[in-house]
Each structure stands twice: as C-alpha cells, then as structure tokens.
C-alpha cells in the first residue's frame, strides 16, 4: 500500500511539472520560451501575417530581385577583394616581421655574448691586477690574452682598461708609467681635474688609447659615472670610433678593488672603484657581418637606432633615405643598459606585388552572380520548406526545454522521495545497532544497513550522471590537504585489503603543496572510485596511489624516454615476477612506479624542491596514478571502459558487483577539473589508472596553513619531532613510502634494504656511541620499524634474532660496551595468530602498525609504544578532535521536520551523544520556539514542509533576530558588555541534493547543509561547523 501511495504521489508531482502555472514566475517565461502551452498547435490568426508576407514575396518583381542580387554581388566582390587584399599584405607584413625579429634577436644575442666576455675581463683585471700582490698582469700580458681570446668578441674592435687616478696621485702615476696623461681628442697633456681614467692596458688593435684619459670624453665620462654607481655595464650614444671613423658605441664596466655585496650603496661602489674596462663596438661592421650571414639579406633594408631621446633618434646603422616598399616593422633591442634604448626598423627592398588572388577571386564572384540570379526561383521554393521546418523546430525546442526542466524537477523529487524513507530505514537500523543484540541479530542489522548504504550510493551515482549530462554540476573552491584526503580514502578500504593480504599504500611528493584550493569532495570521490575498483578486482599483490606534480612527471618522461617502453607487454617480458622493483614484487601494467624510475623521479623532485615561490605559478597541475596487480582489462573492453553503465564483460557484474557508472562519472569530473584520465592495463597482470587535475595554490598573502580552515585536513601531532628511526625493508619503494609517512611526523629516518646493513647500522651506531666514538649523523635510533615481509613472506619476523646474535658477538669482543637496542616495531598488512605469537617471542612491541599506513594512525601507535602511561598527559602536544559526545553534551538542539520518523531518527542520533533535543513539526512552530530569548544552541531544519517550508521559516527567523538585535543596540540602558547578539545556527536537512537547493540555503542565510540520510561522520562535521559559531 505504501508503494502504491508513493507511486501515485510521484505521478501527481510529475504531472504537475508540465503545468504552465509552475513556470508563471520563472525566468524562462520572461525570455518568452514557456509563455504559451508548448503542446498546443499554432494559432491560425498568428499565421495570417506570415501568409500575406509570403504572397507579397511571390508577387515580387523578379527583375528587380536580379538587379538587387547584382548589386549585392558587387558589394560582396568589393568586400572579398578587401579581405584577400588585406591577407595578401598581411602575409608580407608577417614575413617582414619574422625577418626583422630574427635579425634583432641575433644582433641582441651576439651583443649579449660580447658583454659577458667584457664583464669576465673586468673580473680578470680585478683579480689578477688589483687583488694580487705583486700584480701578475701588465700591458704585454693583457695584449696577448685579449688578442688570443678575440674570437670570443667578434663584434668588438678591441678592449682596454683605464685606471682610476685621483689628482693627488697623478705625479706618482705618470713617473711610474713613464708618460703623461693625455686628452682623447687633442692627444695633448690633460689639464688638472679631480680624477682621471688613463688607459694602461689595451688590446693590440687599439693600442693608440694607452695614456689617453677616458674621462676627457663626454660620452665616456657619463658611461664611467653610470657604471661605477650601478655596478652594471653602460653604453654610450653612437659616435665615430677613433681611427676607423665608423659609427659605434663603447661598453664600460667598473672594476672594483674589493668584492662588494649586492646591496652595496652607490657611495660604497664609487669608493671601491679602481678602474674601468671598456670595449668598443663597431656597430656598422657588426650589423653588416650579421646580415651577410643570413639568407635573403638583400630582401630587406635594416636600420638600427638609438632612441634614448625619442624625439631625436640617432641612427646607428642603415641608410637615411628609403626607397622601395612602404611596409615598416620595428623590433625592440635590449643591449643590457637600462638607461639607453635601441630598436631596429626593417623595410622590404622591393614593392609588394599586386594581390592577384584577390583580383581573380573577384572575377569569379562576379561570374557567378548571373548563375545565382537564375537560381532565385528555386531558392524561393526551398525557403518556403525551410520556414515550415523552422516553425516545427521551434515547437520542439520549447518542448525540449520544458522536458529538461521537468527532468530536473523529477530527479529532485525522486531523490527526495527515496532518501526520505531511506533516512528512516538507516536511522532506525543505527538505533537498533545501539541496543543490546545478539551476534546473529547484529549481523542481520548490519547487512540491512550495508544494503541501504549501497542503495544510497547507487542513487548518488545516478544523480551525478544525470547532473553531468545536463551540465548542472558545479565544483567548490575551498582549501584542503590532499594528504588527509588520501589517508581518508585508504581508511575506507583498509579492512578489506588487510583481510585479503593486499598491500595498500599511498605516496605524495614533497613538491605537492600542503594546502591546495579546489573541490576536495569530488577529488575524494574520484580517488575512492579508482581505489575501490582496484580493491574489487585485486586478489593478490598491491594497490599503490601516487601523487606528483605533472611537470615532474613530464621531465622524467622526456629524460627517460628509452626507459619508459611504450608497449607494456615489452616491459612485462623484460622483468621477472617477484622482483623487488615494485611495491609488492608483482609486476604492474606500467613501469612508472618501478623503483628504478621512481628513484630518478625522487632525485629530480628533491633537486627542484628549492624553487622560489615567486617563480611558481598560481595553478598546480597534479598527476595522480592508481596502480594495482589485479585481473586487468581485456583488450576488447578498453574502448568502452569510460562509457556509463558499461563493464568489461557480463560476468564481471555478476562476480564483483557494480553498475559500471563510477568510471564514467570520475572521467567527467576530471574533465571538469581541467584534467584528463587514462589507463594502462594488461590482462591477468594489472591496471594503472592515471589522471591529472588543475588546482590552485593558496595565495602568499593568505593566512598560514596552521591558521587556515581546511576541508579534509587536520594538524598532525608534533611530539615525535626530532626522534630517529630506522626502517628495515627489502623493498626500496615500500621503504620510501614508509619514510614519507614518518617524515610527516617530523621523525628523522634512515632506511636499510639489506638485513646485514640494518644490523650493522644498529650495532655499529650503538657501539660507537657507547665507546665515545664518532657515529653516523643519526647516532642512536629511538625506534626500528621492520616490515613483516621485508625479504619475503614473514621474513622480517626474524630480524630481532639477527640483531641479538650480532650483539652477543660484539659483547664477547668488547665486554664492557653496553649495546642497548631501540624498540622494535613490526609493520604488517596481515597478521595470523601464529605471526602474533612469533612476533612477541622475537621481541617486537605488542603494538603492531597495521597497513595501510596513515600518518595519524602511525602517531597513535607510536604514542602507545614510546610514551609511558604516567607521562602521557605531560607529553601530549596535540589531541584528536573532540568527539561527538563532548561536543553535544548539554547542548539544546531544535529539530524541525514534518515527518515523524525523520524527527525520531534525528532526535535519536543527537540524544545518543548527550544533546537535549526538542522537536517541532512545522516551520511556524519553529518560529514560535526560536523567538528571542530562547535556550537553543542550534537548529536542524527540514526544507520541504507543508504550509511553510524551511527556507521561508529561516527567512522569518533571521528577520526577527535582526529586529531584536537592532533594538538591543539602540537601547542605551543596557551596557554594551551585556548586549546579546541573537543568531541561532540553522542547519538544513534535506533529501534533495541538487545544486540549486544549496544555493537557496545560502541565500536564506542558513549556516550549513546536510543531505539525508546522514551518518555519524557527516553529523560530526556539521556539528563542528555549527557549534563553533556559538
């Protein structure tokens, strides 16, 4: 009977979805799409004007139409000519731009190379002439060195060094060198100045500069002042170079007598200046040689200008009178001096030819005009048919839009109608499980609860698929910790993998930021789906989740292209099953997670770990892979693997279950996140699914990670920081995963993949410390973590015995040496009673770290082992978040729902944890109970209720609170410290999970949102959010 009533109610609601009154106030009516009944036929009266227009069109003078078409043809021909003409000239402009830019780049590059060599010469002079006593540099050495290295400066006519001489030092300087200081242009003895810059070393090609005062030239003096103040190279304006009379520029570098810090002031640089190294560039010869080496250099005319003074540009190269084409392109030049600006202008040496293609095309257009006119009548008939089809398409369009809206409303209704009774079923089952039941009854109840949760999961997947198909799915942008998400996903499947002895592990690169911005819920959904599929189809071996930066993966793929064999079957043939290169020793479908390439990837990531924040992009592209050693995917099933409701074969769903919709949803979500999903699979070997997602970094001006409120992220304990641990595991990849988890807790870690090496590390380090010798940087270890299957099945259990035997041998040799052994901790995926007994006999701690490893789980185990019970309170630095009972105990909660069963479920769940719960069956009753002053700390409000729904009730409550708060603020009789601000936290409870409902909750100023049926974890997160406001 209940199902019949629900079916009738659904039929009524679906029928009401297509009523016009439902859309009377919608935005679609305003746009004119649903104003009329979409199923009604077009009115004959509305067709009358259209019919009369058709008659007038049929009676239209066809000759007039021909003239009209001819005129239109001429206009089109003109437009086409203009278009192709522009394209023609644009082609030549692009050619000119490319040629000009190429020459500018080459000139700039050659200039930069020469500048670097001049700078190197300045450093050489500073080192071997100024800071070496006695000096090992003289004119002969300088001339020989510069002559032999002239090939490195092909653009320069020569280099010279001018020493800084103050007036008080002039006489001694001239006596020392045997000549007097002369001016540059007159070559006569320089008059008295405060300081001089006579050339003492020069290249053989410009030896005429020796004894000439560089500061006697105006351009050189300005260069000297600028370079010694800035510490960078400085260029002069173009001038005629001595001797050659060519246009050129002089590059000057200051030579300091001592090393200066980068932040040295201008005065400090001036005081430390000992001389100046300059080089002359013959710009005309430089550009001429450059152009002669390029093909088609005669096709363009090149001019180089100094535009430091933009109103009067100085020509450095090229003709002053131009002939040929009027096309002009300007390319910027940067010669390394920020004070001086240069650019290159290029022109074509020949005129651009006429656009023959445009002329020919115009002729063709005009030729076809007559043919088009002849086809007018047939076109008229065709238009008539098109108009009829268009009107039919409009009708179908309106129907499709109405059907789309009806589909969305139907999905929301179905979701609500299914979730509402499921909320009662799951809630009552949970309350039943909290009572005293015998084992058989508990098993029955848990089975029913698991079936209900499976049904809810299926409903969520179908709704997600529907929202994806309709384009209504949206992504959140909130901060979260991806490592916490991975820990949460591993926790979901830890029970099953332990029971079947499957190695389940996750690794997140150190380069992945600790906090990212994106949609953590959807990312968790994708990873949970992929890991869940791997768990479902894997019976032995391992499941390995890796998270790296996409740029690091690309770098490794480019550097190790030969190692990454494209055909996975070749990789399978080249390896041996049982090797230690993978996590569990079983071969995988992709070589990326083998230890050889994983080690290279780690080294590359650590070398790039010091990248500055300024050079990092605001976006982060992650590369996530999920590798398993399961049954693989048959070749014939691979093309349809991402299609919804498709499975590898019909027997898969019967054996393993599932709808085949999870991968399709995950693929769509990955695409929405700006990434791609792919996979490698070998039948009976395994599968590796990979996907990329585009996330954002937390801005540098945002609060620190510790103060940032994260989704799926809580702080880890810091009490273990500084402890030292040794990991003993024969599989390097697995030990690296364990090392990462320990390092997240601040523990210093060392790994040993060989039993003898591990024993030597323990006994040798302990012995050296006891005898006062220098041990390794780790010294004594606080703990030793041994994998149960370190070198094979259960081989790690014998490791303490090997340590004890070595200790005995050392004791016999050094009887006075006290060798203490750190705590031995066993890590295992699966433990039998016999394994537990043997571990206890061998000396392992009672607390065993069970896999999959998670940082918080490891911290809990280490706390039991390393911190004595008596000192637990004193040493505890961080605690687990408050539990529900502590949060809800003594709190007054109002539950508002029109459904009696839902009220019982919500009230029972809250009372279970000590809350004082009161219920209301309508929105009006909730308004009455929440009239200030009241005693409620929070309110759980259902949305869909008769008479007054949850949205309207919340709006009324907020209006009342604002009114009371404004009165409190205006009442001067009440002290400001005793004024109470009324705002009761309201959490929406609904079975409707579409995005529009969440948006409406925000608009109505609700404080949270939870979908039915809700579980303990969901309730905990909601309560934490609500009660932190009070």
Polypeptide structure, described:
It is an enzyme of class 2 (transferase). Pfam families: CHASE (PF03924), HATPase_c (PF02518), HisKA (PF00512), Receiver_CRE1 (PF24896), Response_reg (PF00072). InterPro entries: 2C_system_His_kinase, CHASE_dom, CHASE_sf, CheY-like_superfamily, HATPase_C_sf, HATPase_dom, His_kinase_dom, HisK_dim/P_dom. The modification 4-aspartylphosphate is found at residues 787, 942. By secondary structure, the chain is an alpha/beta fold. It has 31 helices and 29 strands. The strands form six sheets. Strands 13, 14, 15, 16, 17, 18 and 19 form a seven-stranded mixed sheet that branches. Strands 1, 4, 5, 6, 7 and 8 form a six-stranded antiparallel sheet that branches. A five-stranded parallel sheet has the order 21-20-22-23-24, sandwiched between helices. The radius of gyration is 41 Å and the shape is extended.
Q: Could you write a compact summary of the structure shown?
A:
With 1030 residues, the chain is of the alpha/beta class. Strands 13, 14, 15, 16, 17, 18 and 19 form a seven-stranded mixed β-sheet that branches.
Question: What do the pLDDT scores average to?
Answer: 78
Strand count: 29
Task: Compute the number of helices.
Answer: 31
- Coarse structural class: alpha/beta
**Main sheet attributes: strand count, strand direction, barrel closure:** 7 strands, mixed
> How would you describe the shape?
extended
Low-confidence stretches: 1-51, 53-59, 565-569, 571-578, 704-712, 769-778, 870-882
Percentage of residues in DSSP E strands: 15-25%
Rg for CA atoms: 41 Å
Measured as a percent range, the helix fraction is 40-55%
| End-to-end separation | 45 Å
